[in-house]
Please model this.
Amino acid sequence: MTTDTNDPLAGLDTIDWAALGHAYGAADDVPEQLRALCGADEGGREKALIDLYGNIFHQGSRYQASAVAVPFLARMAADASLPGRPEVLGLLASLAIGYDEAHLPGGVDVAGWRRETAEFRAKGPARIRAEYDAWVAEAAGEGERRVRESRREAFDFDDQLRYLETELGVYDAVRAEVPGLRALLDDGDPAVRAATAYLLAWFPEEAAPTLPRLLRLLDREPVPAVLATALVAAGLLGDAELVERLRPFLATEDRAVRWAAATALARLGSAEAGVLAELAAAETDPPEPGAPDIPFHDGDLRGYAAASLTLLAGHYPAEALDAVTTGLAATSGPAAFAITAAALRLAFGPQRPAVIPAFAELGERQQRLLRVLASLDSETWRWVNFLEILAAWGLPQDRPALRRYAGMAAE
Model:
């Protein structure tokens, strides 16, 4: 057992990992994966990172072992002698929030998250079951009723409560490390600075000490991709008082920095023409930030721009929809998911219409969007995720059917 407090793995062997769970059962494999993540062998580190994403962050889910691994990962990230620190910071962010697109463009609503978890706990199984019964009774047809009944029968209150409390517990475990990780905004490695800014963006309860550090970074950061990441992070943590501070970055030469400024300003409530222009430009031709990557939205700047354009719908409804539809026409596969959701929201509003009208009754821009959707390739249409987005707005989940609805020729 190590006693070296400078060792990132100090105390690793004092934990009964076999008594902790992850996606595949007992977490007794995690210690060796953490050791490999600190190792000199690049291949070993890559495999360990993949393994950890698979077991303590399995398809976005978090487990008992996830929170216990957090302090070790945080110490690895802070140890300048270790390689691969940006990737470790990225894993910490994933453990904290899951997939970030679920929180964009608004940022983490941690107060709502805490409130919803507490309310679920307080309701108890009987009240939740009654809510499910009412939901089943409201089904529009027999097919929908059967789907809802199936979900009701599969529901387990204790499992769901354990899931909610575990994920919030992992978030709080990462939050506990934030004060020590802020110093990495001054790290000599640009990739570490970017990964740190990205991680800090998800903790609004830590905004008071974090924002000044981010704003100081904006004044001195020479690497455009790091500057862009810090701008987006500041926008996610700040409020409208930050608009004047960030506005000058709309006029910088670097396109990625202008995109980031527009993204931050849209989130802060600014609807000036320059914000619309930069986000619309990113739909047509997303900027290429260079190294390091801008981590937000998995580096998909077009998809993030589409989500941000929904924030401008009240000021530029036609222009925002036009821009996102243009962006959608240039995408394929999973990259189309977020843009499709944004486009449908801009076209039809935040809620599913009670009835989808005849195609001829739709506006010109709505018609254009549906034609673009019906023209997307099979690489997009094969994904259940894409079909579920269409279903949420009551649209056909079959490409030929959508083409018929839109009056397009069969293929």
